[in-house]
Amino acid sequence: MRRLAALFSVLVIIGAGVFLFWPRAQQDVAGTKPVPAPQTQAANHDPRALTDAEQTAFLPLVCSGASGPGGGYAHQCTSLPGYPSQDYGGAGLGLGITLKSVVMGHLTSADADEAYVTYAGSFEAHANNFGGGILFAGGPGHWKLKGWYPGGQAAHCVSLNPDGRAQFVCLSGWEGQGEEDSQLSVESLPPPAGEAPSILSARDLRDTLNPNANCQTLNAGQAVLLSIDSLRPAPGGAVAEISYVSAGAAKSACAAHDFAHAPVKKATLTLRWHDDSMKMSPALNFASAP
């Protein structure tokens, strides 16, 4: 009997040791929750507002003699170092500038440490949407001006890949004389010269001298895309909100020569970036922009 009791005591001690020292990789210190695997931090980011420290670092590199706000801009400059034209386009309006947003990432190569700042400027023409972008390289504490890109705003972009050379889907637009245009394009930053090829284009001509102009390119079964209203990040890509006239409503309105009063619908498009190509859903059959 004593032997059985001694044997039982030995088994209890062994069991306690096994419990204490058996590997428990799936438990945290409290032994109740799984330990999450470490995550790799993204190198490429969506546009965001500049911090005060970033404003302080970037502004002197592009705005000499910076003073306080004026004319609707955050700063007034006496000159613009590195700007590609010394006449400044709209110099008669002064040299007002506002640094609006910044994109951090590997912009010109897979390992570059760069920043691309979108600005609004009184010196920019309407053709440039009164602004552009500025490329800086070197990293925090070592920033250097690399170049100005008038008309190259990137405030409405979404990063598509967290690592490697950055790619973005961007929403841009223009309006004038009653016409409103908007488009989505996949591009790198700084943007290449000329317009980036669009993956989706919208044109609203209802307030022009010819309010039925959207009917010119309409074929049977096609809807009319009036505008791309917003773009925001989503898992695996982005989401865009759009306004459009359905195929049936467009057909009826065009037949009645009254497209300006066609009912407008809203929809959400899901954009998925895969194998260097963009997939959009749902697949809506839109007429080409006139």
Verbal overview:
- With 290 residues, this protein is α+β, with helices and mostly antiparallel strands.
- The chain is 14% helix and 33% strand.
- The protein has helices at 2-21, 52-62, 247-255; strands at 75-76, 96-105, 114-121, 131-137, 144-150, 157-159, 168-176, 179-187, 198-204, 224-234, 237-245, 265-274, 277-281.
- The strands form three sheets. Strands 1-2-3-4-5 form a five-stranded antiparallel β-sheet, covered by helices on one side. Strands 6-7-8-9 form a four-stranded antiparallel β-sheet, with no helix packed on it.
- The radius of gyration is 28 Å and the shape is globular.
- The relative contact order is 0.10.
By oligomeric state, this entry counts as single chain
Span from first to last CA? 99 Å
Radius of gyration from the CA trace? 28 Å
Shape type = globular
Strand content: 25-35%
Mean pLDDT: 85
Task: Tell how many strands the DSSP assignment holds.
Answer: 13
What structural class results from the helix and strand content? alpha+beta
Order of adjacent strands in the largest pleated sheet: 1-2-3-4-5
Helix share bin: 10-25%
Instruction: Please give the count of helices.
Output: 3
Give the ordered list of helices and strands. Answer: HHEEEEEEEEEEEHEE
